[in-house]
Amino acid sequence: MTFNTTLRRNTNRGNAMLGAYPLGGAPPFVSDGDPIVAFSDLVSAPRQGWSAAEPNKGACVTIWGFNFGSFSAGNTYITIGGQTLTEIADFPETWGEAGVNPHLQKISFFLNSSIPLGDQAITVTTGGKTSIQTIPLKVTTNNIYFADNSATTGTGTLTDPWKDPHNFTSTCNAGDVLYLRAGTFSTKIDGGNAVFYIRGDSADPADAATDGTVTDPVAIVGYPDEVAVVDAPDAIGGSTYRGFSIKSEYYTLSKLRVTSTGLGIDVGGSTYSDGHRVVGCNVTGVQSSDAAGHIITQGSNCMVLGNKCHGGRSNNKLDHAIYPSGDASRGGCHIAWNYIADNDFDTGPLISVNHQDDRIDPDKSCKSHYVYGNFLDSTAYACSGITVYDLSWDEGVDTGGEPDPTYVFNNVLVGCGTDRTFSAMSAWAAHSKWFNNTLIDTVGTCFSIENARVLSCEFKNNILHCATGHTYEYVRQLNLAGDVSVDIDYNNYHNSTGGLTDPLVADVNGTEVDPGLVVDLINATVSQASWTETAGTTTPSIVDKDYDLVDRAGVYGLGAIA
C-alpha cells in the first residue's frame, strides 16, 4: 500500500518534545502550516573554532521536525540567541531534507561567534512563519575536533584530522565535539569488543575516556553532508562485536552510519552510566544470534530519537531493534520517532523494555520509560512489535517500591504479530499504559496482557486493525494474578474474525468501525482518510500531541493521528 499523505496540521499546538523539553505543557495557539520542531542532536555546542581558516564558525547543529519547506533566501532561516542565520553557507546540508526516519525533516546549521554564550533558544522560520516551539541549546566555548580514517596521525584539526578517534575520547573535555569524516572506521580504538569502546575504567589510565555532564555531553557526530561509517567486524573469540560500547557518562552519538554483524550501539552498562543520546543514526546489524539489538540502553535518562534500525537477520526472538534495559532507577528512557523496518527476529519484539532479574538493585525501582511516535514496519518479516517485558520487581524482595509505569503511545505498527501467542503489542510485567497507538494489518493477536507479574495495565484510544483473513483475537488476557488492575476502554476494532478478546474483556466504549487507514511504508506516514473520527477518552498530558506533533487541544480521538 502506498499513499503520499499531506501531513495534517491543527491550528493549536504546544511545545515540542525533547530538544530538551519535558513532555506535556500548556499549548499555545499558532496558524496552520507553521514549522514544528521536535528535537536536536546537540544540547550544548561551541560557537567557534571550526578551523584556523574559519575561527568564527562553530559546531554544526541539527534539528528535526515537520513543515520545514525548502530553502528560500530571506524567507527561511534559523534564529538563535537573537541572531538570525540566513545565508546558504550557514546550512551545509539541504534544508528540510528527510532524516533517516523519512517521516521527519531536518535542518543542519553552523553556529558562529556572534551568538551569545549560555542557554539560548532555537526557532525555525519558513515561508514567513516561525515555529512557536523552541529548541534549547547551551552555546559554549568548548572545542571542535575531527577524525578521518584516511589520515596519517594528525592533530585533530579540520586540515590535519586524527586518524585514531581514541585521541579524542581520552583527552576531550565535557562539551567537546568530534566530527567523523566520510569513510569507514572499523579498528578498535581502546581494546574491548567494540570499535568505539568508551569507558572511564580503561585498563590503561591514560586511555580512560572523559565523562560528559548533563549540561555538556561529549558528542561524536557525522561530518555534515558526509557519511561516516562505523563498521564492527564479525564476532572474535566468542565475543559479539559492537559499533559503540559506551560506559562513560553523557555521550551523544548523532548522524552516524553503524553496521555490525552483532550489536550496533550499546550505551550504558555500568551502574551509573547515564544520559546518553543516540540521535539520527542509521543502524544495520544483528546478523548473529547473540547480539540483542541494534540499539541498547543500559543506564538512566537516555534518549533514542529519530534513528533507523534495519537489516537484522538473526532469526532469533531474543534480538530486538531497540532494547531499554539495565539500571534505569534514576530516570527512564525516551524511545521516540524511530523508523524500524526489514528485520528478521523470528517472533521477538522490535522494541523490548526489559529489566528482568537483578538488572535494577532491590533497593531501587525502575522509572518511567516513554515509547512514542515510532514507526514499526514488520511486513517483510512478521514479528512482535512493542513489549513491556519486565521492570525488575518482585513482591516481597524489592524494597525500592513498585516500578513507575511505562508509557507507550502514538506509535504506528504495520504487519506486526505472528500468531495467537506472539502479539503485536504486549504487557508482561508491572505497570504499563498504552494510548493512541495505531496497529495496521496485524497478523497475530493485537494486544496481550499476560503473566502474573503484571500489576496494572491501561489500554485506551488505540486502533486495532487486522489483516484480511485474520483469525486471532484483538485482545488476550491470560495468567494474570487475581488482584491485577486492567482498564481497557475506548478502542476501535476492525477486521478480525477471531472475536474481541479471549477471555472476553469488556470495552464498554469500544467501537467496531472501519478506520479507513492508508499507510505509506516508504515515507512512514499514515492517514485515516475515510473515517469519521470517533471520540476517545482523556489521557495523561504526555499524550497531548499526536504522531505528527499536532496538538490534540484537549480532543482525544482514536489512534496516533489527531
Task: Outline the structure in words.
The structure is a single chain. The chain has 562 residues and is mainly β. The protein has 2 domains: 36-140, Immunoglobulins (Immunoglobulin-like), CATH 2.60.40.10; 144-543, Pectate Lyase C-like (3 Solenoid), CATH 2.160.20. It is 1% helix and 36% strand. It is built from 1 helix and 46 strands. The chain has a 12-stranded parallel β-sheet, with no helix packed on it. Strands 13-16-19-22-25-28-31-34-37-40-43 form an 11-stranded parallel β-sheet, with no helix packed on it. The longest helix is centred in the N-terminal third of the chain and has 4 residues, at 166-169.
Question: Features of this protein?
Answer:
1% helix, 1 helix, 12-stranded parallel sheet, globular, 11-stranded parallel sheet, single chain, mainly beta, 562 residues, disordered N terminus, Pectate Lyase C-like, 2 domains, Immunoglobulin-like
Q: Beta-strand level of the residues, as a percent range?
A: 35-45%
The CATH architecture of the largest domain:
3 Solenoid
Terminal CA distance: 21 Å
- Per CATH, the class of the largest domain reads Mainly Beta
Count of beta strands: 46
Helix content: under 10%
User: Treating each run of at least 4 consecutive H or I residues as one helix, how many helices?
Assistant: 1
Structural class: mainly beta
Q: Which outline best applies?
A: globular
